Amino acid sequence: MASPRDIPTHATEVSHSLSASPAATFHSPLASHSNSFMSSGMMRRTTAPKQLKPFSTGDIKILLLENVNQTGQDILREQGYQVEFLKSSLPEDQLIEKIRDIHVIGIRSKTKLTEKVLREAKNLLVIGCFCIGTNQVDLEFAAQHGIAVFNSPFANSRSVAELVIGEIIMLARQLGDRSNEMHHGTWNKVSARCWEIRGKTLGIIGYGHIGSQLSVLAEAMGMKLIYYDILTMMAIGSARQVPTLDALLQEADFVSLHVPETPETKNMISSNQFQQMKTGSYLINASRGTVVDIPALIKAMRSGKIAGAALDVYPNEPAGNGDYFNSQLNQWGDDLRSLNNIILSPHIGGSTEEAQRAIGVEVADALVRYINQGVTLGSVNLPEVTMRSLTLDEPDHARVIYVHHNVPGVLRKVNEILADHNVDKQITDNRGDVAYLMADVCGIKDEDIKLIRDSLDALSSRILTRILY
Ligand SMILES: NC(=O)c1ccc[n+]([C@@H]2O[C@H](COP(=O)([O-])OP(=O)(O)OC[C@H]3O[C@@H](n4cnc5c(N)ncnc54)[C@H](O)[C@@H]3O)[C@@H](O)[C@H]2O)c1
Ligand SMILES: O=C(O)[C@H](O)COP(=O)(O)O
After folding, report:
1. Where is the composition biased (Polar residues) (predicted)?
2. With pLDDT > 90 as the criterion, what percentage of the chain qualifies?
3. What's the rounded mean pLDDT across residues 95-123?
């Protein structure tokens, strides 16, 4: 099987690909489907973009885990790729077994693509995180091995912000407890320690896509807004940035966390922080499970310091749906469940039809663009590089992609290799130690492709060479 990380070495394969490239638009099926395309008249425009590929698209193997939305599956299948779809994540041993054979993997927040796993991924070209968070992937290792990573940076932000608004009201009114009681036949009509949210202060930690969206919604409901962020962020409406985490904790009636998982945010809210919070205040965490020290939360709620909490994320989460949220998974599970006024949801902040459909399209589009064109726009670990699509008017063009260590002298060596050819366009950029070069070369013959590829592969700076044509 021709690997997309490699260019085919025999001329027949090359010439087949050159002549079979359909005038496909972005979502169109590829070479294997070109006959039906021809007959449907879709190849009439000679300036249509030429789909680039040094491989038969049917050879591309994609593994989609964690119930990636149908929209994403459809886009990938329309390309003619082989797509295997699983509803849940996989344990490490099974993941390692599968990842050896595939070129593309699509995941959400549960699948851990660690260095140990990625070391086995010898054919892996690209990772699609069909979510916002990318903390589950070793981005640095991936970049150092020429594996691009894409995500969907804000398609589910609104869904998370709306969930948090609902939780603020539910906590203020102890609605979770009242509903549970009714489910057990108990009528318990109380107003003690139930509040309106109007006029209360919401403290947002992390004022990025979700935090700022939440700010807009909460202000519309009459809340006062303060936020803390390591960056100076533009305040929206009448929100006010406070200089320290403690300042926020001391002033807020509700605290909502919207930071990424980083070493700095691990146990960001622990005993000391609960002490700073107002007595009778509330905590909401829909960011990552490592951000809150849960045993400290349990203590703070038992003491009455914290009047309620909503958790959507946990340090350990099950790989799939089922009866798994127990004390084996997280040892404090029973203690947490025994608390009053605590809303526990199974990481559903971004789980709406709207968000999942949009994420499916956005990430699958990015994958197709990368596989077929080498375009890295939106990559979270490689430099963002794009060039216009080649057209069918440019039949003997090739796109050279060279991912390399960012060391002096590489461009000179690459251009020596390309010197005998006409380089139409060339662009290069770097991100830390890794650089990404794209060059469109014309007047290319089949035998040139192998020569260029072998010469680039021989350079000591090489991470990955791809030639698309
Ligand atoms: N529950 C869910 O289903 C769900 C859905 C989407 C995202 N998330 C989580 O929410 C997180 C935030 O998402 P986002 O889209 O708003 O991210 P974002 O990158 O747009 O915003 C994060 C903000 O946090 C700030 N920040 C980083 N470290 C900080 C620190 N130590 N102290 C204070 N501020 C800090 C950043 O400067 C940034 O402004 C994601 O990383 C993801 O883990 C959860
Ligand atoms: O990072 C995210 O987008 C959220 O945590 C949602 O993750 P999920 O797609 O696994 O629900």
Report:
1. 12-22
2. 82
3. 97
Q: Is 258 in the pocket of ligand 2 (CB under 6 A)?
A: no
Catalytic residue among 347, 369, 397, 399: 347
Q: Is 285 in the pocket of ligand 1 (CB under 6 A)?
A: no
Which of 11, 103, 14 is CA-nearest to residue 54?
14
> To test the ligand 2 pocket, which listed residue (69, 86, 108) has its Cβ within 8 A of the most ligand atoms?
108
Could you tell me if the CB of 126 is within 6 A of ligand 1? no
* Catalytic residue list contains 27: no
Q: Specify the residue for token string 């690909």.
A: 17
Query: In the prediction, which pLDDT does 52 show?
Result: 54
Q: Is 317 a catalytic residue?
A: yes
pTM: 0.89
Q: For the chain, what percent of residues have pLDDT higher than 70? A: 88
**Is residue 156 in contact with ligand 1, taking CB distance under 6 Å?**
yes
State the ligand closest to the CA atom of 215: 1
211 C-alpha vs ligand 1 centroid, how far in Å?
A: 8
How many other C-beta atoms can be found within 10 angstroms of the C-beta atom of residue 169? 13
Which residue carries 């099950």 as its tokens?
Answer: 318
Question: 173-223, pLDDT tens digit by residue?
Answer: 999 999 999 999 999 999 999 999 999 999 999 999 999 999 999 999 999
pLDDT digits 0-9 by tens, 130-185:
999 999 999 999 999 999 999 999 999 999 999 999 999 999 999 999 999 999 99
Instruction: Report CA dihedral (328, 330, 334, 335) to the nearest 10 degrees.
Output: 150
Distance CA 93, CA 85 (A): 18
How many whole angstroms from 349 Cα to the centroid of ligand 2?
7
The complex scores an ipTM of 0.99
What's the length of the chain? 469
330-361 in b/e form (b: 16+ CB < 10 A) is beebebbeebebbbeeebebbbbeebbebbbb
Burial 31-69 (b: 16+ CB within 10 A, else e): bebbeebeeeebbeeeebbbbbbbbbbbbbbbbbbbbbb
Ligand closest to the CA atom of residue 128: 2
Q: Which of 162, 219, 317, 394 is catalytic?
A: 317
Q: Is the pLDDT of residue 18 over 50?
A: no
Region at 44 (left for phi over 0; alpha for psi -120 to 50; beta for the rest): alpha
- Report the amino acid identity of residue 266: K
Is the distance from the beta carbon of residue 287 to the nearest atom of ligand 2 less than 6 Å? no
> Residue 465: its pLDDT value, please?
97
